[in-house]
Write a structure and sequence with these properties.
Layout (H helix, E strand, L loop, with lengths): L5 E7 L4 E7 L7 E7 L3 H13 L4 E5 L5 H8 L4 E5 L13 H13 L11 H33 L14 H11 L5 H4 L11 H7 L6 H32 L3 H7 L7 H11 L9 H8 L7 E2 L2 E2 L9 H14 L6 H13 L1 H22 L13 H17 L13
Parallel strand pairs: 1-4, 4-5
Antiparallel strand pairs: 1-2, 2-3, 6-7
Helix pairs in contact: 4-8, 4-10, 5-8, 8-10, 9-10, 10-12, 11-14, 12-14, 13-14
């Protein structure tokens, strides 16, 4: 077990930092120094100067919201900084104070008793901001669409019943015309595109309800909101694409995986970067993402525990990619999904496929080689044998008789 002679534990808050500096060798009494600092730029520089003056080797703190980030940026490169997962530093009930938390952290850090959280290099973290902003904007856009559909239903325009995509070219053309006061069907009919022309009468009936001025204003407001969100998403995507040009090779390798496109590859690289040496194996990486099964054993019995908590942003990206892969023909992941969905249901099967994607991503980035689908038949011999037995059983239930040649007896 390693031992650090001078360490510091910090209890991080929004406006204050409680610090505890421990100095001492193994088997000797330790010297304890406790101080408080603010969280302004000057206070953080004063903290850094004090720690450097005391020759602090390791500093440990809990990942409290986003309050740890300015401190980590200030001290990064000056000393080893350990950011601990909150699950690893739960306080003892009845003894929780800022001073006690800082002292407890310092004692654990001195013995390397807390595993550090994975924090990518500064160059990678520059891509996290636009990547996470992209997710926030997409969620805001989905919310705006749902509110628009709710508005249409409340004013008696059931367009979602006659159009598969209300926000497609036809739907948006009709909504813009309605918000501008157009009511004549001859004008609205000109907005129909493609296959929607075959359902012109149903669409006309769905638009019979007249709109009052306030309803047209609400509709126009929602459309302006959607247009603004579209422009913001496009701007963030452009920024993310420019950032990812420095990792074009890794981005291209990731796009060789079925149903991981350019955008998904950019989001993945923004979260994990290209150096996965912090993870001993692919399974450790999948566990960090939050796609590995959790453990909940009591009295020798295993209870259902779902998956572990982990990187929820990357997890959501991989689950979406898994959902797309489950519909791609000629893909091994689709065959695996179909086999699992019959046994555990579609939602759990998609998480299982996302777990396989995490393992594939790890191997691709570590080996620096593109993904290659297996050349063997996607259906295993066990699957073929099971289907054969099922077919024989159905024929025999119908009164038939099947004689299987010796070459297929297995």
């Amino acid at each position: 077990m390693s031992w650090h002679t001078c360490v510091c534990g910090l209890d991080v808050h929004r406006s204050s930092l409680a610090t505890c500096l421990l100095r001492g060798s193994p088997g000797e009494p330790s010297t304890r120094i406790e101080r408080r600092f603010g969280t302004t730029f000057t206070d953080l520089n004063n903290l850094k100067a004090w720690l450097l003056e005391e020759h602090c080797e390791v500093l440990g703190m809990e990942a409290t919201g986003v309050f740890w980030k300015p401190l980590h940026r200030t001290l990064e490169g000056e000393m080893r900084v350990v950011v601990a997962n909150p699950a690893h530093v739960k306080a003892i009930l009845g003894h929780k104070t800022d001073r006690h938390d800082a002292s407890w952290l310092a004692g654990k850090i001195r013995e390397d008793g807390i595993p550090p959280s994975f924090i990518p290099a500064p160059e990678i973290r520059k891509g996290r901001d636009p990547a996470r902003l992209h997710g926030n904007l997409v969620r805001a856009k989905t919310q705006a669409k749902n509110q628009t559909l709710k508005l249409l239903a409340s004013i008696g325009l059931p367009l979602s019943s006659v159009l598969s995509d209300v926000f497609g070219q036809t739907g948006m053309g009709i909504l813009k015309a309605l918000s501008q006061g157009t009511t004549a069907w001859s004008a609205l009919e000109g907005e129909l595109r493609g296959k929607t022309k075959a359902h012109a009468e149903r669409i006309r009936m769905a638009l019979e309800m007249p709109l009052i001025e306030s309803e047209r204003w609400q509709l126009g407001f929602q459309l302006q909101r959607l247009a603004a969100l579209d422009a913001q998403v496009h701007e963030v995507d452009s920024c993310l694409k420019i950032w990812s040009e420095a990792y074009a090779t890794e981005r291209t390798l990731l796009t060789t995986i079925p149903d991981i496109g350019e955008l998904a590859a950019q989001l993945i690289l923004a979260e994990i970067g290209t150096d996965l040496s912090a993870f001993p194996s692919a399974r450790h990486f999948a566990s960090w993402v939050g796609l590995a099964p959790a453990n909940n054993e009591t009295g020798g019995r295993m209870r259902p525990a779902g998956t572990r908590k982990g990187g929820k942003i990357l997890r959501s990206v991989l689950v979406e990619c898994a959902q797309a892969a489950s519909r791609t023909r000629g893909c091994h992941l689709r065959v695996k999904y179909q086999a699992l969905s019959h046994r555990m249901g579609s939602p759990k099967a998609k998480v299982a496929i996302a777990h396989k994607l995490a393992l594939i991503i790890y191997r691709i980035l570590v080996d620096n080689r593109p993904y290659k689908e297996s050349e063997t038949d996607l259906q295993t011999s066990e699957t073929r044998a099971r289907k054969l037995r099922k077919a024989v059983r159905i024929i025999e239930q119908l009164g038939g008789k099947v004689v299987i040649p010796s070459s297929h007896s297995r």
